[in-house]
Amino acid sequence: MFYLIYVSSAIKLMHDDELLLLLEKARENNSRLGITGMLLYKEGNFMQMLEGEKKTVLELYDAIKKDERHKDIVTIVSGDIKERNFENWTMGFYDMNKAGDFPRYDDYIKENLTLKSFQDDSQFAYSFITQFNEMNP
Ligand SMILES: Cc1cc2nc3c(=O)[nH]c(=O)nc-3n(C[C@H](O)[C@H](O)[C@H](O)COP(=O)(O)O)c2cc1C
To answer: Which end of the chain is more exposed for a tag (fewer CB within 10 A), N or C?
Structure first.
């Protein structure tokens, strides 16, 4: 099993209905592809974790990178995992605008300052996003 975490910036702020549309399509595709994961969104910024067969994850990531709804796509970390973190989610979603405070994540959203620190400390990014697997699907 392989996983990949990236961050990106939406071209413009996304409305709820646009996010819903994106998610519906993603879930439909992912269930066919055997992909699971989590998408976080806050103030025009995405963070996503994809899990599945390595080839499938990388092909999907290539397609996602070409999507014109976002830009500045930066891979944070990828690698092998024994088992999925999001086995019940074809794509979980968390609207971080409605969540509590996550200081280091919020710093990244505000200034992109911690992007480098996310990359330098990939263990943090991994544990940050996987904590959302405790939310109900
Ligand atoms: C932030 C973001 C995350 C996305 N995540 C997924 C995803 O997990 N799975 C997926 O199939 N498409 C995802 N997409 C959409 C793809 O970029 C692309 O539009 C879609 O795979 C095309 O599907 P189609 O060829 O069936 O129309 C995402 C797009 C964005 C902007």
So the answer is: C
